[in-house]
Amino acid sequence: KINIKINNVPMEVEKGTSVLMAAKQAGIHIPTLCAHPDLTPWGACGLCVVKVEGMPKLPRACVTEVSEGTSYITHDPELNKIRRTIVEMILSNHPNECLTCGRSGSCELQTLAANFSIREVPFESNITELPKDESTLSIVLDPRKCIKCGRCVLVCQQLQDVWALEFIGRGDHTEMMPAAGALLSESPCIKCGQCSAHCPVGAIYERDDTKKLLDAILNPELHVAVQIAPAVRVAIGEAFGLEPGTITTGKIYAALRRIGVDAIFDTNFSADLTIMEEGTEFVDRLTKGGVLPLITSCCPSWVDYMEKHCADMIPNFSTAKSPMMMQGALTKTYYADKKEIPKEKIFSAAIMPCTSKKFEIVRHKDMYASGRQDVDVVLTTRELARLIKQSGIDFLSLPDEEADSPIGAYTGAATIFGATGGVMEAALRTGYFLVTGSEYEKITFEEVRGMEGIRTASIHINGKELRVAIAHGVANVRDLLTEIRQARDEGKEPPYHFVEVMACRGGCIAGGGQPYNTTDEVRNARIAGMYADDQHSEIRCSHKNPFIQEIYKEFLETPGSGKAHELLHTHYQH
Ligand code: HC0
Ligand code: SF4
Q1: 84 in a domain, yes or no?
Q2: Residue 141: which CATH number?
């Protein structure tokens, strides 16, 4: 620890802390548009300049480490003036389109302009006219609004190792865009939306599909059924002032009913179903000598990555569809039959923490297993929050309501799907039952939890060793894949039997469509919310969900049956 002073107040901080973080620990907010706790700081925007005792220059707090005995001033009228000028200069290069911007109300630049009372911009306006890129179904790039903070490039390269976005050009002419001026759809982009979650302004944002859901609700011909993903319930509260990790499942159901949807289902039901299908596939491969490790395939950005960059691993992918797609297929078959509603009259929507799910719904012809598009629209958590607000609903005072039967009920195992390691833990809870037909005494598997980028564990079940690995954030997957490939190419036993991969750091709880300002602190709080929800669940193993047992009895026959394959499994392509 070292001793410093911030704004004349003594404090102790860890050696190596940046002035920016030290100030944060002291409860002082230094503005910045480029630094983000997930990313390596690079001092691009210059807003975080501070004064250092005995130093004539003004260093940038994000890239300056504290030094023993030094006194720092973070705010005074002179620093405020400098910051104000920087904001004015950025505004002179920024379109004045706040009212219709994808980030209106949550833009970090807008907040700064407001806080600095900027009423006019004293510099000549100089906006480069560049077209919007709406080539993906997931996110929109509006390069005119780019303030060159670099967060999108850094997140795409450092956290995701995808390199779809690059710094192009130099100095004042630097642009952040797909290499060679290509469209995003032609780039290696996997649609994870992490760039949109880290962009401070409206240069990258989720494609807004709220109107599609509202139009369907307005159409008296349509029966609108909505499903909600595991991770939405621990995050949407943040948009209404609740702490990250607060579970609001019942209020989300209530809000959607008030917005006018006809049936509320839960993706968690199909998460339980995925465990039955994927678990059966795993046990089959394990006992009959199939390709191992089995790798999870419920994250569409991960599927996209695998298809684009590691197609040789496709045989390792589970053929089980993601819970969202299973739910969609069942909505237009099992549920439609039960309710005697023609499937063409059902509009199936999904609320997801993820921008990539918007693309998954048309990824492959298998996504039309019901004979129609199984999921018609995906809205992110952020879009649902806006929809709730525009509908005049006081979210916090809503009663807790229940989902609709029969594809709404779920177990604790399904809830934790939204956290890294959750699918693995849910599978382990049911795996023993699938192998032996009897129950295992252990329900929680602490060894697969946590935030380490790659986690491995060895689990002993019935005298057999099961080696598992979990990776989250695409940048963490490469080493794991190399290890698996090497063993395969050398004809050795696979290093793991089962591998879970989620493209976003922390898993879906930190998906690209979740409320803004996600940091590791927020991730941990949301994850804690998921595990708390699980712990309070009456039933905590997927195979014990009575509605899952019923759907097999009434409709799907057995896990892995012909019918299950037709509706619940998919193929991958190079
Ligand atoms: Fe996830 Fe899912 S857990 S991918 O992270 O498996 O988006 O929340 O909905 O489908 O269930 C996201 C979250 C889902 C799916 C589930 C899986
Ligand atoms: Fe990169 Fe993901 Fe953004 Fe695509 S969506 S540009 S992969 S961060």
Answers
A1: no
A2: 3.30.70.20
Co-location of 198 and 215 in the same domain:
no
Atom of ligand 2 nearest to the CA of 155: 8
The ipTM, to two decimals, is 0.94
CB atoms under 10 Å from CB of 158, counted, come to: 13
Regarding the beta carbon of 501 and ligand 1, being less than 6 Å apart is answered no
Residue 231 Cβ inside 6 Å of ligand 1? The answer reads: yes
For residue 106, the 8-state DSSP code is T
Is 269 found in the same domain as 133?
no
Number of domains in the chain: 3
Same domain, 439 and 528: yes
89 occurs within a structural domain: no
- The alpha carbon dihedral of 404, 406, 411, 414 has a sign of negative
Distance 355 CA to ligand 2 centre (A): 10
pLDDT of residue 461: 80
Q: Give the pLDDT confidence score for residue 170 in this predicted structure.
A: 73
Nearest atom in ligand 2 to the alpha carbon of residue 138 is: 5
Pairing of the two strands 464-472 and 498-502:
parallel
Per the DSSP assignment, residues forming a β-bridge with 175 are 168
Most informative mutation of 142, 194, 305, 306 for ligand 2 (most atoms within 8 A of CB): 194
Q: Are 479 and 447 in contact (CB under 8 A)?
A: no
Compute how many other C-beta atoms are within 10 angstroms of the C-beta atom of residue 15: 10
Is 185 part of a structural domain of the chain? Answer: yes
Phi and psi angles of residue 174, each rounded to the nearest 5 degrees, phi first: -65, 135
The domain of 11 spans: 2-75
418 and 501 share one domain: yes
Distance, CA of 486 to CA of 491 (rounded, Å): 8
- Which pLDDT score, from 0 to 100, does residue 332 have? 98
Tens of pLDDT, residue by residue over 223-255, are 999 999 999 999 999 999 999 999 999 999 999
Nearest protein Cα to ligand 1, atom 6: 298
Q: Is residue 16 part of a domain?
A: yes
User: What confidence tens digit (pLDDT) does each residue in 322-351 have?
Assistant: 999 999 999 999 999 999 999 999 999 999
Which segments in the chain show pLDDT lower than 70?
A: none
Report the pLDDT value the prediction gives residue 432, as an integer from 0 to 100: 84
Please tell me the number of the ligand nearest to residue 269's CA: 1
Determine the distance separating the centroid of ligand 2 and the alpha carbon of 103, expressed in angstroms.
18
User: In ligand 2, which atom is closest to the CA atom of 356?
Assistant: 5
Q: Which amino acid is at 152?
A: C
